[in-house]
Design goal:
By secondary structure, the protein is mainly alpha-helical. Helix 1 packs across helix 4. It is globular.
């Protein structure tokens, strides 16, 4: 299991079994509008961090975006594996063409 899958499973667990004081549960309790607002805010902060040119803050902001996107996926009932599988398919594309490379899916 990779880190994204592990984090996604933790988020699902929080949704299924709320934990007092959990920020994730706070987001779920506030609903889709709040979750989407946080995704947007974190994206804006990521852009600012990138423009400032310092790697450490950028890594933190990208991590925030990814976390909030996982919360959004969970809220919408979409498993992380759906995104992972889509990225795998896209990595097989040749340039902008629709055909795909042959890829060993066991690696």
């Amino acid at each position: 299991m990779d880190a994204m899958e592990g984090l996604y499973l933790t988020i699902v667990s929080r949704k299924e079994t709320p934990m007092e004081g959990s920020y994730t549960n706070y987001l779920f309790s506030q609903g889709l509008d709040k979750i989407c607002k946080k995704v947007g805010e974190e994206c804006a902060e990521t852009i600012i961090a990138a423009k400032n040119g310092e790697p450490e803050p950028l890594v933190g902001e990208v991590s925030d975006v990814l976390y909030h996107l996982l919360v959004l996926l969970c809220e919408q009932g979409i498993p992380w594996s759906a995104v992972r599988d889509e990225l795998t398919l896209r990595s097989q594309k040749i340039g902008n063409r629709k055909e795909r490379r042959d890829v060993d899916r066991n690696t």
